[in-house]
Automatic annotation (TrEMBL):
PROSITE patterns named among the record's database cross-references: TAT (PS51318)
Residues spanning the signal sequence: none
Source organism, top-level taxon: Bacteria
Protein name: Phosphatase
Lineage: Bacteria, Pseudomonadati, Pseudomonadota, Betaproteobacteria, Burkholderiales
InterPro entries to which the protein is assigned, alphabetical: PhoX (IPR008557), TAT_signal (IPR006311)
Species this chain originates from: Sphaerotilus uruguayifluvii
Length: 673
């Protein structure tokens, strides 16, 4: 694909400085307006939010913790899709989790949780579909649009693909393993070439509990289901994050308890298999408010962050790229069995089109080699390393999809520094993966593997010794051999290393200046209109100096740099003894940024994370999600607004709330120009 006509190749806006102010800062000549806040009503029959913890009816209001966001154009009459229309469209966005403290008048109650509190919390999770319209230069959301919809952690979902109907998915709610209720902890998003929304279930495991005796009930530590549950992070006796299972005896609450309780042999009288119905990419048709979301099991089960597809080529399969965001987890690719037909770009039946491309295909996991090459390793029951895996006996291909992490372990994939978003540069077909940080990657004193070429850094935070490992994260870039979606080999390099500007050349490998230094890249998205790469941060290591931020980059191509040696130095203090170790590792990195190819564009309010990002097709409006301002507020401070960590966006003594912001250029131009 060619670069877009009018691609921006040199950044002209004045970089925004680092800031700890409780506000949004954008460059001179731009305006950031709050569009859609947690609690804002989708219908006029629901009152404006008081934002004092007494609001209810969240199934008709914006949810909390806005994350991934996508724009879907509507035609002028509003009767259906027009992907090119910037005047009228739908935003589909995730509500990843909750700022629980501010959802209730005096903060959340202890276990057992009152049913009304649980019901509210379940409803603030999931997604919003909300119509937006432009009038003059202003963009606002449309109350009472027929497209407005909330999907929550209680909405019925269809299981589809190879694991649907398998014994591993049978529950009391769905004895044939075809359905489940809800989606939660939806982090990043993606779209499809046929105009639907992909939402990615990330830290879903923490919502469930298991009894202390559950390993024994399941047959002990080597029982297959116990091995699986532990690999996904749910140990026997683990408490659920919010205690939703304590809300009552009804199934609506009991389903959050994943213990083996019933007497059936197949799990159809309890929720022992419930966690297997989460951890998927879910496809939603934003244009069909009554449609049932479909969990696409062919794309594998893990802590999904995002999904991005390679530019479709007629007659070739589609490829989607996905990260598993936990320390030392993997990067995956799904390749459809079906070859792309250009007629499917505007299909008559979006659901059938999703079934066509996303229900059958091959799942691969990435192995990065030290020489800048890599392999996609097939995850299939026919692969000897999987079929003969000693740790876990896979039953069939459905089992390989449900336990994709175990299959990836079996084939020896590369353990990465927390893969967050994936995004494709449409001008080059390079695939980018943000690797946000990894506090487990230390040189000594840990059982964790040492650095490798693709995850080459381990060092101490430069100020205050706050973190160790890969403190600031990096962005890796992959090019498929021959740009082929079904290639099983690729080339890679490191696009950028996060760092504090004054950290020293050993750590600040990309030579970042004060106008462009950042830490912990998370969201990342190429803008089709301008070709710019937008990079968002979710940081813990640099927030003593600056709130989280959004940067714009002119990306270049994989291979525009060369080999480099990283000289790691790590000091580990144990008691009164400090041990300093060093380790050199060779890696491959792209060309260093200049002051016109990487600039800070936005800094957010206090204690927030900058999450989702999307644009109108004309590039003149950029939607950015601001998640969890004031997140570090102490539970005891709920009665004292002077102790809130943020009052954004409403100011004064208001409780902070997550929100979508729309950014426009005052001269009506494209964002970043
Ligand atoms: Fe929800 Fe991996 O960030
Ligand atoms: Ca994220
Ligand atoms: Ca993150
Ligand atoms: Ca720091």
């Amino acid at each position: 694909a060619p670069a877009p006509s009018g691609a921006i190749t040199s950044l002209a806006f004045a970089a925004v400085g680092k800031s700890l102010a409780d506000t949004i800062t954008v460059p001179a000549g731009y305006t950031a307006s709050v569009l859609y806040r947690c609690g804002d009503p989708l219908v006029s029959t629901v009152a404006a939010a008081k934002n004092d913890g007494t609001d209810t009816d969240f199934d008709k209001r914006s949810g909390d913790c806005h994350d991934g966001i996508e724009y879907f154009g509507l035609n002028t009459a509003g009767t259906g899709p027009d992907a090119s229309n910037s005047e009228r469209g739908l935003l589909g966005m995730n509500h990843e989790y909750q700022n629980n403290l501010f959802l209730h008048a005096s903060g959340p109650s202890a276990n057992p949780r009152p049913a009304a509190e649980v019901d509210k919390e379940v409803a603030v999770h999931g997604l919003s579909i909300v119509e937006v319209r432009r009038s003059g230069s202003a963009i606002s959301y449309v109350k009472d649009s027929a497209y407005n919809r909330r999907i929550t952690a209680a909405t019925e979902m269809l299981m589809s693909g190879p694991a649907a109907g398998d014994a591993l998915l049978k529950t009391k709610y769905s004895i044939d393993g075809s359905r489940t209720r809800g989606t939660q902890n939806n982090c990043g998003t993606g779209t499809t070439p046929w105009g639907t929304l992909l939402t990615c279930e990330e830290n879903w495991i923490g919502y469930f509990t298991r009894a202390a005796t559950d390993d024994t009930a399941r047959g002990g530590a080597t029982a297959r289901s116990v091995v699986s549950l532990k690999r996904y992070g749910l140990s026997a006796g683990a408490a659920s994050r919010y205690g939703w299972e304590t809300g009552g005896t009804a199934d609506l609450y009991a389903r959050w308890n994943a213990s083996l309780i019933g007497t059936s042999t197949d799990g159809t009288d309890d929720y022992r298999n419930i966690t297997n119905t989460f951890g998927w990419i879910v496809e939603i048709d934003p244009y069909a408010p009554a449609s049932t979301p479909r969990k696409r099991t062919a794309m594998g089960r893990f802590a999904h962050e995002a999904a991005a597809y390679l530019t479709p080529v007629a007659g070739k399969p589609l490829a989607f790229y996905m990260g598993d965001d936990s320390r030392g987890e993997y990067i995956y690719k799904f390749v459809s069995d079906a070859a792309w037909s250009a007629a499917d770009a505007v299909p008559a039946d979006r659901v059938a089109t999703g079934d066509k491309y996303l229900n059958a295909g091959k799942l691969y996991v990435a192995k990065f080699n030290a020489d800048g090459t890599g392999q996609w390793l097939l995850l299939d029951i026919s692969v000897a390393a999987i079929k003969n895996y000693a740790t876990y006996a896979f039953a069939n291909q459905a089992d390989v999809m449900v336990n994709a992490r175990l299959a990836a372990d079996a084939v020896g994939a590369t353990k990465m520094d927390r893969p967050e978003w994936s995004t494709v540069n449409p001008a080059t077909d390079d695939i980018y993966f943000t690797l946000t940080n990894n506090t487990n990657r230390v040189l000594t004193g840990s059982s964790y593997p040492l650095v490798d070429a693709a995850n080459p850094r381990a060092y101490n935070d430069t100020d205050g010794n706050k973190q160790k490992g890969n403190v600031n994260g990096h962005i890796i870039r992959v090019a498929e051999d021959n740009r082929d979606p079904s290639a099983t080999s690729f080339k890679w390099d490191v696009f950028l290393f996060g760092a504090e500007a004054d950290a020293g050349a050993n750590i600040n490998l990309s030579g970042l200046t004060d106008d462009q230094d950042f830490s912990s890249p998370d969201g990342m998205r190429f803008a089709k209109s301008t070709g710019l790469a937008w990079i968002e941060t979710d940081d813990g290591a640099y927030t003593d100096t600056t709130n989280c931020m959004l940067l714009a980059a002119v990306a270049g191509s994989r291979g525009d740099g060369g080999p480099v040696t990283v000289n790691n130095t790590m000091t580990v203090t144990s008691g009164t003894t400090s041990t300093t170790s060093s380790l050199a590792v060779s890696t491959w990195m792209g060309r260093k940024p200049s002051d016109t190819t990487l600039k800070r564009f936005l800094v957010g309010p206090s204690q927030c994370e900058i999450t989702g990002i999307c644009e109108t097709p004309d590039g003149k409006a950029l939607f950015v999600n601001i998640q969890h301002p004031g997140e570090e507020t102490a539970t005891s401070a709920i009665a004292d607004p002077s102790k809130y960590g943020s009052h954004w966006p409403d100011g004064g003594t208001a409780r902070p709330r997550s929100a979508t912001v729309v950014i426009t250029k005052n001269d009506g131009g494209r964002i970043g120009s």
